[in-house]
Write a structure and sequence with these properties.
This protein has three domains: 147 residues, Rossmann fold (3-Layer(aba) Sandwich); 135 residues, no CATH class; 70 residues, Orthogonal Bundle (Rna Polymerase Sigma Factor, Chain: A). It is 47% helix and 15% strand. The protein has 17 helices and eleven strands. Strand 3, helix 3 and strand 4 form a beta-alpha-beta unit. Helix 2 runs parallel beside helix 3, helix 5 runs parallel beside helix 6 and helix 14 runs parallel beside helix 16. The N and C termini lie far apart (54 Å). Bound molecules: magnesium ion. The site of magnesium ion has 4 residues, from helix 7.
Amino acid sequence: MKRLAILGSTGSIGTQTLDVVRRHPDLYEVYAICANRSVDLLVEQAREFRPEVVCIADESLYEELSRQLSAISFQGKIWAGADSIADMVTMPSIDIVVAAMVGYAGLRPTIEAIRAGKTIALANKETLVVAGEIICELAQKHHAPILPVDSEHSAIFQSLVGEDRNEIEKILLTASGGPFRTYSLEQMRTVTAADALRHPNWEMGAKITIDSASMMNKGFEVIEAKWLFGVPVEKVEVVVHPQSIVHSAVQFADGAIKAQLGAPDMRLPIQYALSFPERLAADFPRADLFALKDLTFERPDLERFPNLGLAYEAMRRGGTVPCVLNAANEVANLAFREGRCGFLQMSDIISETMNRAAFIQKPNYEDYVACDAEARRIAAEELNRKS
Ligand code: MG
């Protein structure tokens, strides 16, 4: 029996993780759950799974959470705030930490969990974007395995099973292309958040759906692939594949390409991260190749999707630049969702913030914290200048 802590339990990955647990009650136990602000759903989850710890990131909701949990006679610990989350993930009973919080907020608890030697099922890609170097060093030092939950990285990970000694020639990272894949630059100028939230293939949270539409999500995934699989970003090639059936592939030195295919359903990569190296039987939807007929592949258009180019640039410059990329994107993404900036302006804000922010070549954790704060301030200035 493995005990889980789920950070972001009320989000898209969190609820799907609980669905995987529900299917294998003999293998997994929910020990701790944590949400940002969704009290009602968190209480519902506490009622069903009876964890030892229920935690809310937003401390102002502690009273409300306590009131609702006592109404269902919850007997466990009720915690709130960032320090509590950091304590929660290091509890000795926990085997696996599912890191599925949104954005930069996932960094600190992931670092604490790694330091405590936990197995990390990593869905929070911003953690590796911001601080990939120190995350990888710590994971090695504390023997904390990092298992990817992101569908593309799970596909790469699955393609690499049994290939330990074999050199990767290239990673083929697939992208659906999002809802604006076929839009002209002119059309993209006027799209709204509601347009962007209609993703063709994947059901996800709002932040990542906007990142998918702008291809910043794919840029982040290029960086994530670099750190998870130890290849330079030049060896990570983005392939637009609108059907989302090939979840990514690896090309080896002899030219062989290994890929993982399947219906787009996040529960498969979530379950694989929890059960690795085993595969557990599941009745998730199957990809029917006969029904699909066409699988198509295109090169990404960096002119219409400059965020992808910005992500490669951030990695080439290195140091704190990827941290700036992430912070500026979080500001721009939220502004776009709230109707405070246009779709293409997001890239301008990010690019200008990358040019203005201070640069540190070999940052430590405190440098990342300071860099993140400075980049958010600069991005907010750039945003004001545009509106
Ligand atoms: Mg993905």
